[in-house]
Amino acid sequence: NAGVTQTPKFQVLKTGQSMTLQCAQDMNHNSMYWYRQDPGMGLRLIYYSASEGTTDKGEVPNGYNVSRLNKREFSLRLESAAPSQTSVYFCASTPGGVSYNEQFFGPGTRLTVL
Amino acid sequence: AQTVTQSQPEMSVQEAETVTLSCTYDTSENNYYLFWYKQPPSRQMILVIRQEAYKQQNATENRFSVNFQKAAKSFSLKISDSQLGDTAMYFCVEGTSYGKLTFGQGTILTVHP
Predict the structure, then answer these.
(1) Looking at the predicted structure, is the pLDDT value of residue B72 above 90?
(2) With contacts defined as CB-CB under 8 Å, which chain A residues touch B44?
(3) Given this model, what pLDDT does residue A31 score?
(4) Facing A45 at nearest CB: one of B50, B91, B101
C-alpha cells in the first residue's frame, strides 16, 4: 500500500497562475483533509471532506477550492496564486466517523509563488 | 474556536535522558481528543501518542507518556531514554468533530549524543 500520495512534490508558480494539487489514498478511508504549513508553524486546515460527496471549509479556506473526485482522490486548486500562498501543503486521510482516529499524512508539496 | 499553545520553541536533551514538552489548549468542545505528532527532517508527520479526553488515565506508548490535566487544559509529553531518532519537531494537536485537527506551533527537539 502506498498510503497517501501527493503530486507534485515541488512547484514554482508566478503570481496569478493557477494549479491543482493532487492527493490520493489507497486505504479506503472516508475522510480526507488539506493543510498548509508555513515556516516554523503547525499545520492549518484549509478544507476537509468528511465523506465522499461532501466538502467543508477549515480554518484558512480563502483562495482555495477543493474537489472530492471519488473516495480515493481529493484535489486542492489555487485559482490565482498569491505570494501569501507560498507554503508546504499536506494531504491527510482517516477512516472517519470519530475524532480519535489517526490521520495519515502524505509527504507534502512545497509550493513557491513568486 | 480551538487554540493550542506550545511555549517551548526549542528543547535539547542528551541521549538516554528524559525530556518533557509542554502544551496547553483551549477548547469549547465537550468531545475531543489530544495527540502528539512528530515531524522529523524528512517532513513526514508521524503519530506519537493519543489521549481520549474523557479518560483520566494517562496514555503511554513505550518510551512516550503524557501528563493530561483536563481541568488545567494541559497535555505534556514525556520522552524517556531519548534516542537520536527522536530529533524532530513535535506538535501538540487537538482533534474534534469530523477529525478536524488544530495544531500548536511546535517544539523543535534535538537529541545530542
Answers:
(1) yes
(2) 105, 107
(3) 93
(4) B101
